[in-house]
Amino acid sequence: MTTPRTRQEAAPPYDKEYCETHDAYFDPLKDEWLESACDDPNCEYCVDRPERPSLVVKIQQSET
Ligand SMILES: [Zn+2]
User: Fold this and answer.
1) Ligand 1 center to residue 63 CA distance, Å?
2) What is the pTM of this model?
3) Which letter does DSSP use for residue 1 in this model?
4) What is the DSSP letter of 12?
5) Contact yes or no for 19/59 (Cβ under 8 A)
6) Which partner from 3, 7, 24, 25 sits 20 to 30 angstroms from 16, CA to CA?
7) What are the Cα distances from residue 18, in Å, to 24, 53, 60?
8) Dihedral sign, CA of 18, 57, 63, 43?
9) In angstroms, what is the span from residue 29 Cα to ligand 1's centroid?
10) Per-residue pLDDT of the chain in tens (64 residues, 90 and over written 9)
11) H or E segment to which residue 33 belongs
């Protein structure tokens, strides 16, 4: 009998990341969105979403 792996051991540490700007998960290694954009043409999350997650410009807020 082999010892069953836990989920944490089986899964790679970062197989997906979350983009707050576009409210969607993506694969940083393949550079692909894991979620398709919604059908709402007025959706602020999807309207400006680029083809590749790497093209997303991360807005860094620096409030002083
Ligand atoms: Zn949307």
Assistant:
1) 27
2) 0.64
3) -
4) -
5) no
6) 3
7) 6, 10, 15
8) negative
9) 23
10) 666 666 556 655 668 999 999 999 999 999 999 999 999 989 999 988 999 999 997 666 676 6
11) strand 32-33
How many beta carbons lie within 10 A of that of residue 11, not counting itself? 11
Give the CA count within 13 Å in the CB-facing half-sphere of 6: 2
Between the CA of 19 and the centroid of ligand 1 the distance, in Å, is 13
CA–centroid distance, residue 42 to ligand 1 (Å): 8
Q: Which two tokens stand for residue 30?
A: 């393949």
Find out whether 39 and 46 touch, Cβ atoms under 8 Å: no
| Residues contacting residue 22 through CB under 8 Å, at least 6 positions apart | 45, 46, 48, 49, 56
